[in-house]
Amino acid sequence: MRSRKQGSLVSNPQPRQRRLGPLRRIAQVLTTIEITIGAVALIAIFVLVFAQAAQRYTPFEGFAWTGELAKFSMIWLTFSVMGVLITNRGHIALEIVDTFKNQMVVRIVQGIALVIVVAVGAGLTYEAWSLVTTQSIIKSAVLRLPMSLVYIPVLIGVVSLTIRSAIAAADVFINGPKLTDYDESEVTAA
């Protein structure tokens, strides 16, 4: 192995970590925001659906807005965490390719899959943007909330998905595939 002065074949990971430090912190902050939005939406769904169920057994008139807000919360939950799932590899994926011995094939398949996600995310971003800009005249049935406001979390979620997928695709093409750890008994049993 060569010394550092002659140009080491082994790269030093410290400068790379320092360069990615601010980006990593920004990603962590965005992830925290997205997870918080998702958690609030999940709690809202739980509380609102419980309130709807409880209203059936009370002599009081029910609140119609609980169903509408629960439906919007479901939409916000779904779209707010899409980017986080891509970053944390929590999305649904066919990981059979990860078991291939040829890492170049795995790199190409993972990279192409992420590029496809970027393309779909770009299309979703375009459509979400058009919904936000054109649907302000339409109001929700009970809350009278402009539908453009309902679509803002959707827009944020698909923008996050697109950006995170593009970064993940570049990472796979530059640094190689991200492999899932398998237990030998799981691989042989399948």
UniProtKB/TrEMBL annotation:
Compartment(s) where it occurs, according to its Swiss-Prot or TrEMBL record: Cell inner membrane
Keyword presence, Cell inner membrane: yes
Biological process per Gene Ontology, one example term: C4-dicarboxylate transport
GO CC annotations, alphabetized: plasma membrane
Entry's transmembrane regions: 26-49, 69-87, 108-129, 149-174
Molecular function GO labels: transmembrane transporter activity
Start and end residues of each Tripartite ATP-independent periplasmic transporters DctQ component domain: 45-170
Membrane topology qualifier: Multi-pass membrane protein
UniProt keyword list: Cell inner membrane, Cell membrane, Membrane, Transmembrane, Transmembrane helix, Transport
Homology family: Belongs to the TRAP transporter small permease family.
The protein, known as: C4-dicarboxylate ABC transporter permease
